[in-house]
Write a structure and sequence with these properties.
There is one protein chain. The protein is α/β, with parallel strands linked by helices. It folds into 3 domains: 145 residues, D-Maltodextrin-Binding Protein, domain 2, CATH 3.40.190; 97 residues, Periplasmic binding protein-like II (D-Maltodextrin-Binding Protein, domain 2); 241 residues, D-Maltodextrin-Binding Protein, domain 2 (3-Layer(aba) Sandwich), CATH 3.40.190.10. A hairpin with a 3-residue loop joins strand 15 and strand 16. Helix 10 packs across helix 16.
Length: 545
């Protein structure tokens, strides 16, 4: 097996070397993906295409209908997301999704295996368009332009069943191995106390070798993503076990070159369409035998839960002064994008919807007392990850600075010595607290009870700047574009989710499954259109394709 794998890898590397010598890769270059929706076992044998159909090496391959090639960089030893199939072709869940996107857009898809240690060099040189291969977002947030997360993944520990190791604490004094430059290694580096307890921490060139070492007994444990672990344990469930306690829980995204938001959005919009029409679920089914945990694929719309049709009252806590997500309409009713989506959820489930305005300073008390079922109101995830049971993010939001057009303030540095105001207990305040150097430069930082008052202060000239979420800023600037401007430089970029009481995953899952169905059939896009005049940035709603 080891010799066979080595031979396959050697052939693949030789093919790549030959391709690199030509001006353009020939059509038979092994980096060209197989049919977009076909798993490895269904892909045509490599010898099937007639040699006469391939263009000569000096010919330029026919361009895609939309005129571009989309090259995905991936690790060929990272199943089920990217791996070498039995027929020698490149396969995997991420590659299949990427190939399907290219097929729909008329692009030419190229799967490019890379040395994981040099992934950044490949991306910055333009050799690849993105890194799409179970690529962990956490710890790399500022290094790439990321798609929203598409997969939740735990980093787990695999041990031999007879090892006597039952917890992370039992790894003290043991030999542990993981793949170099992997999310497994990143998770361990993020827990220095755990890592320090090991007798040694070894880094393998790939996970295949790491699991061989475990099988031979030369190491005591392998640390890997759960999908990789389950794939390598196939047919060996009696030999190996996964510890109940994970090292960390992580999410995967598609990493593009920093600043390339245009390509990211184009790819992500098509990805959401795969989820909406059920194609993503079909692709996931094909890779479950390879270790994919279908339930971890965030944007798959599952069948409704039997529990979901049972009647109940669903009470959403919100800030009535936070447009476009929640506010008081001209007729005195409660309105907003988040409330409209929540009400649609209830309509589909047969629940009674209650919009409950709350004092934002006491939101946790409202939730823990049972007065509300969730906090759904442009609620920032970052900095609160461990305080609630969160839905996945549904909105990307920047925290920005609004100033008067004639203020002479053009950058964050120009706020030095100025009077700045934001809402108490808001994401704007959190963003400023996260940048003490910036905040220390202000003459003063004031906290207002609500944003309406903050913008009144700005209009009267009693403060120099307001720090707020971009949606709030745009709403308050309506019909005043000549009076106010938003600085180009944001204070921070944040994401919004629905916050449930810690541990209430059952309710979270029922609500989120229904939210996905609302996105899938186009209803969410229609709801978003209604709130664009109120400051909603439709492009920031991550579930709209």
């Amino acid at each position: 097996m080891k010799k066979t794998l080595a031979l396959i890898l050697a052939l693949a590397l030789l093919a790549l070397a030959l391709a690199g010598c030509a001006d353009k890769p020939a059509a038979s270059t092994p980096t060209q993906a197989p049919a977009s929706s076909a798993p490895a076992t269904e892909a045509p044998a490599p010898a099937e295409p007639a040699p006469t159909e391939a263009p000569a090496p000096e010919d330029t391959p026919a361009p895609a209908a939309e005129g571009r090639t989309f090259t995905v960089g991936f690790d060929a030893e990272f199943p089920p997301f990217g791996f070498i199939a039995d027929d020698g072709s490149y396969d995997g869940f991420d590659l299949a999704a990427a190939a399907e996107i290219c097929a729909r857009k008329g692009w030419t898809f190229v799967a490019q295996p890379i040395n994981w240690d040099f992934k950044d060099a490949e991306l910055s040189s333009g050799s690849i368009d993105c890194i799409w291969n179970g690529f962990t977002i956490e710890g790399r947030e500022d290094a790439y332009t990321w798609s929203p997360a598409y997969y939740d993944s735990s980093v787990v520990v695999v041990v031999r069943a007879d090892s006597g190791i039952a917890s992370l604490a039992d790894l003290a004094g043991k030999s542990v191995i993981t793949q170099a430059a992997s999310s497994g290694l990143a998770a361990l580096e993020g827990d220095p106390e755990l890592t320090a307890s090991f007798a040694e921490l070894l880094e393998s060139a790939d996970y295949n070798n790491a699991f061989m070492e475990l099988g031979m007994g030369t190491v005591d444990a392998v640390v890997a993503d759960v999908g990789v672990a389950e794939y390598n344990m196939q047919g060996k469930s009696g030999d190996y076990v996964i510890l109940d306690e994970p090292v960390s829980v992580e999410t995967y995204g598609i990493g593009f070159l920093k600043g390339n938001e245009e390509l990211m959005l184009e790819v992500w919009d098509e990805y959401i369409s795969l989820a909406a029409d059920g194609t993503l679920a079909e692709l996931a089914d094909k890779y479950v035998p390879y270790g994919l945990v279908k339930e971890n694929v965030i944007h798959i719309v599952p069948a409704p839960s039997a529990d979901a049709v049972e009647w109940r009252t669903f009470t959403v806590g919100f800030d009535a002064e936070f447009p476009p997500f929640g506010f008081i309409a001209d007729d005195g009713s409660y309105d907003g994008f988040d409330l409209a989506v929540a009400e649609e959820v209830c309509d589909r489930l047969g629940w009674t919807f209650v919009a409950q305005p709350i004092n934002w300073d006491f939101k946790d008390a409202e939730l823990s007392s049972g007065n509300i079922d969730c906090i759904w109101n442009g609620f920032t995830i970052e900095g609160r990850e461990d305080a609630y049971t969160w839905s996945p993010a549904y909105y990307d939001s920047s925290v920005v600075v609004v100033v008067r057009a004639d203020s002479g303030i053009a950058s964050l540095a120009d706020l030095a010595g100025k009077s700045v105001i934001t809402q108490a207990a808001s994401s704007g305040l959190s963003a400023l607290e996260g940048d003490p150097e910036l905040t220390a430069s202000f003459a003063e930082l004031l906290e207002s009870a609500d944003y309406n008052n903050a913008f009144m202060e700005l209009g009267m000239g009693t403060v120099d700047a307001v720090v707020a979420d971009v949606g709030v800023a745009e709403y308050n600037m309506q019909n005043k574009s000549g009076d106010y401007v938003v600085l180009d430089e944001p204070v921070s970029v944040e994401t919004y989710g629905i916050g449930f009481i810690l541990g209430n995953e059952e309710l979270r899952d029922i609500v989120w499954d229904t939210v996905l169905s609302i996105a899938a059939d186009g209803t969410m896009a229609s709801i978003a259109d209604k709130y664009v005049p109120y400051g909603l940035v439709k492009e920031n709603v991550t579930l709209i394709g």
